[in-house]
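Look at one such:
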Amino acid sequence: CVSCARDGAALIWDARTGALRTEIRTPSADVADALFVTAGSQVLVAERSGRVALYQTSDGALVRELVHHRHGISHIAIAPDSARVALATNLVTLVDMEHGGCMGRFRLHRDDPYCVDFDSQGERLVSCATDGSIAVADSAPLRGQLRRRGLALERRAAIEPQLAARLAASESVQVIADSVRTDPRLDSLELATWID
C-alpha cells in the first residue's frame, strides 16, 4: 500500500508484513495523494503545491513530471484506461498520463472541489466540493464526445422514420416505449435512442 502525509514523502509499504519498502521524497513539504499505476510498478504522487509526478515503486526514482498546476491539489483519480488523471484543484482538471500536460478543465462548483473520481468505464467524472455540491461531467476527450454525438445523430436519423410510421398508425407513445424496452434485438444505445 502507499501512504502520504505533510512531511513531503509518499511511503510504500508491504501490506502483509507492514515493512517499509520505499520512501519517495518530493520537493514539496506536503503530499496530498498517491496512487499506484502500471500494475503497481509506478506510483503517481500529487503535492499540495500543484506538482504531479510519476515515480518507480522499486526505488522511488522520478519517472517524469506530468504537470505543475498553479493551484494546490487535494485529490487525484486515474481513469480505468490509465490514459488520464483527474485532479481536484481550484477546478477539476484532466491531465494526459502518457505525455503530461492539461487536457481540459471543468468549473463544476462554486467552491473548490476536494474529491474526484471516474466511473468504472471512465466516461463520467464525479466531483464534490466544499460548497456541498456533487457534480457529474462527461470526461471523454472532445474528439470522443463529438464521435459519440455523431453516432447518436445517425442512430436517431435511422429511428425517426420508424417512430413516425408507428405514430401515424395510431400507436401510443406508451405502447411504443413498452415495446422497445422489451425488444431483445435492441442494444443499449438503440434503446436509449428510442426512449430519447
